[in-house]
Amino acid sequence: MLAWGVVMTLTGLVTNYTGLVVARIFLGIAEAGLFPCVNYYITLWYARRECAFRAAIFFSAATVAGAFGGLLARGINEMSNVGGKPGWAWIFILEGILTVAIAIIAFWLSQIITLLFTSLLIEKS
To answer: 48 to each of 43, 45, 52, 54, how far by Cα in Å?
Structure first.
């Protein structure tokens, strides 16, 4: 997630087509494992009978995010020429910075969440 956020932010800083293509390749590499890894983690943290429901929640959230992503992009695109950057660049920069911040928070919280879910798994098994 951190790598994806960093690459996303840097994508907003490119100045030519070649740079954009290279950045998008690295973004694809960083993002490629997201959905398989999320499904894998769901199987680690939830009882077998809960996995399908949790996966459905995750995939539904991804669909809803895609539906509202265009609205967010439209609003951010209005920042065109702020700091000499086009609106599309601001979309990448702001969403990338937000992703990096969430990745840092998630890393910090992971120990607490690990203890919580481990105790829940022991309790349910």
So the answer is: 7, 9, 8, 10
Sign for the pseudo-dihedral over CA of 35, 5, 29, 112: negative
User: Which string of b and e fits 70-79 if b means at least 16 CB within 10 Å?
Assistant: eeeeeebeeb
Where does the pLDDT of residue 26 fall: very low under 50, low under 70, confident under 90, or very high at 90 and above?
very high
* C-alpha–C-alpha distance, residues 20 and 79, integer Å: 20
pLDDT, tens digit (0-9, with 9 covering 90-100), for 41-54: 899 888 889 999 99
DSSP secondary structure letters along the chain: -HHHHHHHHHHTT--SHHHHHHHHHHHHHHHTTHHHHHHHHHHHHS-HHHHHHHHHHHHHHHHHHHHHHHHHHHHHHTTTTGGG--HHHHHHHHHHHHHHHHHHHHHHHHHHHHHHHHHHHHHH-
